[in-house]
Amino acid sequence: MARRPFPDPVEFTRLKLVERVRAAFNDASKGEAPIPPSDEAFFAANTPIRMVHADLVSMMVGGMSALLLQMLHPHALQGVLDFSNFRENMHGRLRRTARFIAVTTYGHRDDAEAAIARVNRIHSKVTGTLPDGSAYEASNPRTLAWVHVTEALMFLEAWLVHVRPEMPLSEQDEYFRQFALIARKLGADPVPETKAEAQAVFRTLRSDLRATPQAREVAELVLEHRPPGAAGTIQPFMANAAVSLLPPFARTMLDLDAPGLSALPSKLVTGALGGTMRWAFQQKPRG
Q: pLDDT grade, residue 231 (50/70/90)?
């Protein structure tokens, strides 16, 4: 009887890591599976948005930074406070956001359109009153513009800092042009199509922001959240990296200290983890 060849330990380790990561982002109890890349997606393979959104670690760092900025907008914050169960299920919120980004970036365009329609239906029901008595709606184009521009800027900035700092400006602009397609379908306005435009929109919408105890509470929950297992060990380094990306005014409004001397170890750990994930998923940033 022929003996079964002994498995390659390196390949075995790689596959196990991929399996664990996919399990963390896909709820098997709901029949969720990884989003398969489609030739009929909104965006072609090897284009900037697909490269940036494929990097797990930089997306998580940029996503935390974006969420902190979003909570400074009173309308976005109140919608989360009134309609989200993020306090009890932070991981569930992360998983839903990650799946939406995955399907709209890589999935078949029909699935992407369906996901966008679902989010628009949800947003249409997220309405209420701010503490000052004024009304808010999640479908407000200006609020959606702030949500979009913070995500686009922070996702890209995390990629530039932790993955590919030499990315040409032309490719960065293309990233914003591509991401604009999703933002418009979600009802955002204004929607930037270049990095310079995104920075200008960011500066304009900054006047809408407010520093509140509730925003600081959410920031603390986001940064102090510790998932179980090994992920909880590296979470402080990623949280520190996320704070490092924030503009100084946002750190002041959220009462967050600048990372200081802790920035370097956080960058090193985040970079090493990102490299490990790219090895596991056999990804290579275009350069």
A: low
Question: 144-155 b/e with 16+ CB inside 10 Å = b?
Answer: bbbbbbbbbbbb
- CA–CA separation, 60 and 37 (whole Å): 20
Of residues 285 and 142, more confidently modeled: 142
230-245 helix and 263-280 helix, angle to the nearest 10 degrees: 120
- Both tokens assigned to 3: 């003996």
**CA angle, 44 then 120 then 146, to 5°:** 75
Q: What is the pLDDT of residue 184?
A: 98
- Look up residue 280 and give its amino acid: A
E strands, the chain, are: 127-129, 135-137
**Residue 136 in 3-state DSSP?**
strand
Rounded CA-CA distance 276/235 in Å is: 16
